[in-house]
Write a structure and sequence with these properties.
The complex is a heterotrimer.
Chain A (H helix, E strand, L loop, with lengths): L8 E12 L2 E13 L4 E5 L6 H8 L8 E10 L2 E2 L5 H7 L4 E4 L3 H4 L6 H12 L5 H11 L16 H13 L5 E5 L7 H18 L2 E6 L2 H7 L2 E6 L2 E7 H6 L4 H11 L36 H5 L5 E2 L6 E2 L2 H4 L6
Parallel strand pairs in A: 3-8, 3-9, 6-7, 7-8
Antiparallel strand pairs in A: 1-2, 1-4, 4-5, 9-10, 10-12, 11-12
Helix pairs in contact in A: 4-5, 4-6, 5-6
Chain B lengths: L6 H7 L1 H23 L30 H37 L1 H16 L2 H12 L3 H28 L2 H8 L4 H37 L10 H10 L6 H27 L8
Chain C lengths: L1 H27 L5 H6 L6 H10 L6 H13 L5 E2 L4 E2 H36 L4 H15 L2 H15 L18 H38 L2 H8 L4 H23 L1 H15 L4 H10 L3 H29 L12
Antiparallel strand pairs in C: 1-2
Classes of the chains: A alpha/beta, B mainly alpha, C mainly alpha.
Chain lengths: 328, 278, 326
């Protein structure tokens, strides 16, 4: 692949709003994500944190007229694509970035055969290749039998459909593959298979990976670096090990505790108290303040910048780091 | 789970929907109070035939000297009667049958839908004409034929909606509470399934009015019933000399059907379950 | 797919049987002497009346009557029209040609135009263009066809004298060749427009809502993510999926187009089944009425069957289960 020093994907302080009939939702309020060649990066967060919006914004797939980038920058391989028109996006999508979605049944065209859908991808990005041969090749790559090519999506199982989605994305020969909740709709055994597949593909194709998931375990096993999102902000970032084991942001800590499912001293499971943030407002202060046990005055006044935490390249947007107080 | 709260507001936002609703309300008023203002028999000869519009006969007189405006006013009742009764009957029948089919599933479902298809295959207009030709004219007959051949459409929609709603999780939740099946169907599922059915019902009103007008246009309505279509059939004979006999009744039919179709569309957009996402 | 089609074919045959029974009921059960229906109100020679009584077994039990009725139908005996001095079946088949010449071009034109309008409207949904186009379809859907016919005649045939007002051919028609076709085309314009208008509206409405729904489907997102051009997305993904409900609506609404044909033919004196139907009413030529009813119903069944075929060809999900029709 090209030897550019530019990261494949770079999002800086990105803000995205959805405007339906006058009701405005600030889905992304200050998100910054960078993915360079050969990396596997994860984005953790619950529903409503803006992770899917981020994935779509990376490809210019925000809903027409409803979704807009209102501030910040998106660059792909050094090119600023923030103000790209749909026409320009058409030419760009697929090759540098490809995406795999969550629920393959609704994301695959029900009246087209598998080979046709993969073939489209191939013909668009590999016009000189033999579409049929390449299709078989791709199916092999995702460990599917060539006979699947003639089938329709509704004839396949969930795991098979997810692999077909992967094959379609790989047909674009992407430098970076974005996987939006790749295993959420699948059962546990299939999840493991798909994850192993993603890992092996990454290695064999020298492809970067951006995995978006609420499942921390998944991110731990697959990603070198992880971002944590809350209320449309990227609140923590660093190497996976640092972020998950030496979490600096109270929200991350809450997430990690909750995912462990260990009982606390009082016999209850760990949760994060309070309600999900209301995205109809813009947060110019820390959005987690209402649910944070360690909040103090400054937290309610201004949004903390990314402050260094324990570990190389580990930062979190929390005022606690500035006062150097790391609570027990 | 009753999603009806936003309906009135939503309807008000749709300008065309409001206009058509108002127009229909106006028609209802005319139907109810018109005869009071225009007392007397509209079929009685009031003046010389074929008078141009103007003067004491705002819309002229027909070939027998009857006042066109009076006939139009009385015609509203006939149109509204046929339209609303036929649509109501078709909707009620169709909803019940469709809901049962969708909820019961299996052979009950298949049998009912096959029967529905059979009724739908019958060409409504032709059958109506044949019945009227053989048995003689009559509004109730027309209403009956329309209702009998239109309920399958409603049944299909109702069935589809019931199928969709019964798969939603809250139904199982209610089931776990021990609520009997029939109650689930009527209390929980149907109110949520009603939306598209109502929209279709409104469209059926328009269709029924057109059908009745077509029948009277062909001379198949009883002579002592004032129907817009009948005036049009007279207009057909005097197409080049008495334009007012074609323009006004046709306009009346067109405006009425348009209003009901607009309303039906507005309701359809509004009550579309897929809109609930916003 | 074969299983699905077989079950539909079987059901179609059952429906035809049902139609025949309804036809029987109309002619035999309704109050009045069935002879009137079978012979018509036209003065007929008494021996013919006796012959009919015998042929249809009108003095026999109902079940035998049904049997004889079916047997007669199978032989193609739908009765005799004294008004037209022809066997009913022959008469109907003769006039069917003219009706097809009226309806088929209209249906094709309506489908194509309706589709184009729908694509336009869906692309610009919610904005000016969409409102205008939707408004036009709504008007087309609401206007009484016979009134539209009258207006068209007054404007185009009388005031402007551009087009003929009646008939399918001029009296002084050139016998053969291109002249005949041109003559037919000239006569087709106004009545054809009447039929097209309604159907166009139906197609446009369904196609538009179907396309709008498809445009928001998830698989369209996947298609865009692949880097496909908007045109490719529209044609290969959206349209193919939108077509399915449109096909079914066009097909299953075939019966309604027959109604439109009847009214249009009446106003324009087009020599097809429609005007035959009307003259038979006023002349109480009942066997023709019953015959047209049977033909129309069977035509709808056949149209439905063809639609089922097209539907199964277009949507692979259907071939797995046999749905209770669209």
């Amino acid at each position: 692949m090209s030897d550019s020093a530019d990261p494949i994907l770079e999002m800086q302080a990105l803000c995205v709003t959805y405007d339906t009939h006058g009701r405005v939702v600030h889905a992304l309020q200050d998100a910054s994500v960078t993915v360079s060649a050969g990396e596997a990066v994860g984005i953790a967060g619950e529903s409503g944190s803006g992770k899917s919006t981020l994935a779509r914004a990376a490809l210019g797939l925000l809903p027409e007229r409803v979704g807009r980038i209102t501030a910040g920058r998106v660059s792909i391989a050094g090119v600023d694509v923030t103000r790209y028109t749909p026409r320009q996006w058409e030419r760009l999508r697929g090759r540098p970035l490809a995406i795999v979605f969550q629920d393959p049944l609704s994301f695959l065209n029900p009246v087209m055969r598998v080979e046709a859908q993969i073939g489209e991808s191939v013909r668009r990005h590999d016009p000189r290749a033999d579409a049929h041969a390449r299709c078989v090749e791709l199916l092999e790559l995702v460990k599917l039998d060539a006979s699947v090519a003639r089938r329709y999506p509704h004839e396949l199982s969930g795991g098979m459909r997810q692999r077909v989605m992967l094959a379609i994305a790989l047909g674009c020969r992407p430098r970076l593959l974005i996987a939006d909740e790749p295993t959420t709709a699948l059962d546990a055994t299939t999840q493991t298979e798909i994850l192993a597949l993603l890992r092996s593909l990454r290695e064999s194709l020298d492809m970067s990976l951006l995995v978006i998931s609420h499942d921390l375990g998944l991110l731990r096993w697959n990603c070198d670096r992880v971002y944590v999102m809350y209320a449309g902000h990227t609140v923590e970032h660093g190497r996976t090990e640092d972020v998950l084991q030496r979490s600096a942001h109270p929200y991350t800590r809450g997430l990690v505790e909750a995912s462990r499912m260990r009982r606390r001293a009082d016999g209850r499971f760990a949760t994060i108290g309070g309600d999900v943030p209301d995205l109809r407002q813009r947060y110019h202060f820390c959005p987690f303040v209402a649910r944070c046990a360690h909040a103090f005055a400054t937290c309610r006044e201004a949004m903390p910048p990314a402050l260094p935490a324990d570990g190389a390249d580990h930062t979190a947007r929390c005022w606690l780091l500035q006062s150097q107080t790391v609570p027990a | 789970m009753r999603p009806r709260r936003g309906v009135v507001q939503g309807l008000l936002r749709n300008g065309a929907g409001v206009a058509s609703a108002l127009f229909i309300a106006f028609l209802v008023l005319v139907a109810l109070f018109g005869p009071v203002i225009y007392s007397g028999d509209p079929l009685a000869i009031s003046d010389s035939p074929m008078l141009h519009p103007g003067g004491s006969h705002l819309l002229g007189t027909d070939d027998l000297g009857r006042d066109v405006l009076a006939e139009l006013v009385y015609g509203v009742r006939v149109s509204l009667f046929v339209g609303c009764v036929a649509a109501f009957a078709a909707t009620v029948m169709g909803t019940l049958v469709g809901a049962i089919a969708g909820y019961a599933g299996g052979w009950v479902d298949t049998t009912i839908m096959r029967i529905a298809e059979f009724f739908q295959v019958m060409p409504t207009f032709i059958l109506a004409v044949v019945i009227v030709a053989l048995l003689g004219p009559g509004l109730l007959r027309v209403v009956a034929v329309i209702a009998l051949l239109s309920w399958p459409q409603t049944a299909r929609i109702a069935r589809g909606e019931v199928l969709r709603v019964s798969q939603l999780d809250f139904v199982n939740g209610v089931r776990c509470l021990g609520v009997p099946e029939w109650r689930i169907l009527f209390r929980e599922i149907m109110p949520n399934a009603i939306g598209p059915v109502l929209a279709l019902g409104t469209l059926i009103v328009g269709y029924a009015i057109l059908l009745e007008a077509s029948l009277s246009f062909l001379g198949l309505s009883s002579p002592d019933v004032v129907s817009w279509g009948r005036i049009l059939s007279v207009g057909q004979r005097f197409l080049f000399s008495a334009w007012w006999l074609s323009v006004f009744p046709g306009l009346a039919i067109f405006a009425t059907v348009l209003a009901f179709n607009l309303l039906g569309d507005a309701l359809g957009d509004l009550l579309n379950p897929r809109r609930a996402r916003t | 797919m074969a299983r699905y089609l077989r079950s539909r074919l079987l059901w179609a045959c059952v429906m035809v049987v049902g139609i025949v029974i309804v036809g029987f009921l109309i002619t035999h059960i309704l109050p009045g002497d069935p002879v009137d229906v079978l012979v018509g109100d036209f003065p007929a020679p008494p021996d013919y009346v006796t012959q009919v009584r015998h042929e249809f077994g009108l003095d026999q039990p109902l079940s035998t009557q049904l049997g004889l009725y079916v047997a007669n139908l199978a032989r193609g005996n739908l009765g005799f029209s004294f008004l037209n001095r022809q066997p009913v079946l022959e008469l109907i088949l003769q006039r069917a040609g003219a009706t097809l010449l009226l309806m088929v071009p209209a249906l094709i034109l309506a489908s194509v135009l309706g589709g184009m309008i729908a694509v336009r409207a869906a692309r610009h949904a919610g904005r000016g263009v969409d409102s205008v186009l939707t408004g036009i379809s709504l008007v087309g859907y609401s206007v009484p066809v016979f009134w539209l016919a009258q207006i068209l005649i007054v404007v185009f045939a009388v005031k402007l004298a551009w087009l003929p007002a009646q008939g399918m051919f001029s009296i002084r028609t050139p016998g053969t060749g291109l002249g005949v076709v041109a003559d037919y085309a000239k006569h087709w314009v106004l009545p054809g427009a009447c039929i097209t208008v309604y159907y166009l509206a139906v197609v446009a409405r369904v196609a538009r809502s179907s396309m709008l729904e498809m445009l928001h489907q998830d698989f369209v997102l996947t298609a865009r993510a692949k880097g496909l051009s908007e045109r490719a997305v529209l044609w290969r993904h959206v349209l193919r999926n939108s077509l399915i409900p449109v096909i079914t609506v066009i097909g299953y609404n075939f019966g309604y187009s027959l109604t439109g044909a009847i009214l249009t033919e009446t106003v324009f004196a087009w020599p097809g089944l429609g005007s035959l139907f009307i003259t038979s009413i006023s002349n109480r030529d009942y066997p023709v009425l019953a015959g047209i009813f049977l033909l129309a119903a069977v035509a709808v069944v056949i149209a439905n069957l063809i639609t089922d075929l097209l539907y199964a060809a277009a949507d692979p999900r259907v071939r797995v289960a046999a749905p209770a029709a669209a």
